[in-house]
Amino acid sequence: MQAENGNKVKTLVFRVSEENFDSVLERVSAIIKHGGTVAFPTETVYGLGADGLNPEAVLKIFEAKKRPPGNPLSLLVHSREDVERVSRNIPQNAFRLMDTFWPGPLTIVLEKNDIVPDITSGGLKSIGVRMPDHRVPLELIKKAGTPLAAPSANLSGKPSPSLASHVISDLTGRIDAILDGGEASIGLESTVIDMTAKPPIVLRPGAVSLEDLESVIGKVRSGYKNSEAGNEPDLSEKKAGQKYGHYIPDTKVVLVEGEGKLVSEKLVKLLESYRSEGQKVGLLLSDETSKETATFLALQNLDLYECLLLGPREEPEVAARKLFEGLRKLDRKGLDVIVADGSFSRFGLGEALINRLREASSIKIVA
Ligand code: TXA
Ligand code: MG
Q1: In terms of Cα–Cα distance, which of 195, 148, 168 is closest to 51?
Q2: Which residues does the record give as ATP binding sites (predicted)?
Q3: 17 burial type by CB count under 10 A (0-12 exposed, 13-18 middle, 19+ buried)
Q4: Which strands sit side by side in the sheet containing 281-285, from one edge to the other?
């Protein structure tokens, strides 16, 4: 039945509404119970779910996403009881995090229980768990009666899906069903914190910030690429899941970081050199950078440019919602290079935003 064998899976697509919620959820929970795969919206990004306790079902996720084996999946849960079913020796601080941030964009890595198959945890003795703040997955977990293994519903290496159309383009013919629930309200994946480490390590930044976490459980370490090249923390023993590339469009992405005006000046120089080479350039800009470079762009041959706006520098949450759609859109245009603006505020979602921009880019320039 796998696409690899040449036999395409028939993918059902449902637009979830108030009227059909119960009947659609009934139908797709039956797919999960029978070991199938269903993509659905969450508040962070779309997830691709299967019964997380059924190794054959979980294998289908790896095959559909072309995800490298050994990259651990996390589990979406519906209740505290679910957490205690799949994990053990849960530290008090992990319960405090659940009380404060769940349901919500925080994945908590805990010691795994034997009930969770090795394929789900990528062979690790730990497992990431999250209670999503979205009624579609919550109802699906409840109706299917099992925690869902649920990575982001994109082909491995592509930007995560913030819209059902992203899932449709990546996974049609590879999974059993797709639930369209509109745009993901956050647009970036959850924060991941490893609570088996002392002090706990943040493996991926997201909508729950380091400061938010520290205000509840005290000192945490950051273990992701949040620092400029050559200045990365060495957490070699804890970098599970970090060793695989993510968020990489096919088109080369160049990121220009720094203070607003400096970024704009650097960008103009960069665009001049691309123009002299006749390169077609995609631009992902803050509103301010777009204004500051408008005079320059107006003088150019506009055929060479595709420009998308990500919102104000001081509102990274707006850019977060638009980022993956922007990358996918520009990636389809057959451009030579995408230049991304890294002048957004680092507050709130800003840290996660810059992290995803860095992951997506192969060249980083500091203005
Ligand atoms: O917001 C989200 O977390 C979305 C939605 C669908 O829930 N899911 C998501 O899943 O982004 P995924 O698999 O694309 O990312 C989960 C991250 C990966 O970086 C994975 O390596 C890490 O969490 N992870 C999962 N289990 C882990 C473990 N036991 N130890 C370390 N890292 C783990
Ligand atoms: Mg992912």
Answers
A1: 148
A2: 67, 71, 152, 160, 204, 247
A3: exposed
A4: 305-309, 281-285, 337-342, 252-257, 363-366
Per DSSP bridges, beta strands 87-88 and 106-112 are antiparallel
Task: Say yes or no: do domains 12-222 and 252-366 share a fold.
Answer: no
Q: Which atom of ligand 1 is nearest to the CA of 46?
A: 6
User: Which CATH code fits 12-222?
Assistant: 3.90.870.10
pLDDT, tens digit, 9 for 90 and up, residues 319-349 = 999 999 999 999 999 999 999 999 999 999 9
Q: How far is the CA of 323 from the centre of ligand 1 (A)?
A: 19
| CA distances from residue 214 to 190, 273, 331 in whole angstroms, order as listed | 17, 44, 37
Dist. CA 149 → ligand 1 center (Å): 10
Does the pTM exceed 0.85?
yes
70-97: average pLDDT? 97
In order of 275, 276, 293, 367, the CA distances from 269 in angstroms are 10, 11, 11, 11
* Nearest listed ligand to the Cα of residue 44: 1
Pocket test for ligand 1, best of 86, 107, 116, 191 (most atoms within 8 A of CB): 107
Going by CA atoms, what residue is nearest to atom 13 of ligand 1?
151
Element (H, E) at 340: strand 337-342
Tokens 């899932």, located at residue: 167
In CATH terms, is domain 252-366 a member of 3.30.360.10?
A: no
| CB-ligand 1 contact for 204 (6 Å cutoff) | yes
> Residue 294: pLDDT above 90?
no
Query: Distance between CA atoms of 49 and 156, rounded to whole angstroms?
Result: 15
Query: Does residue 152's CB lie within 6 angstroms of at least one atom of ligand 1?
Result: yes
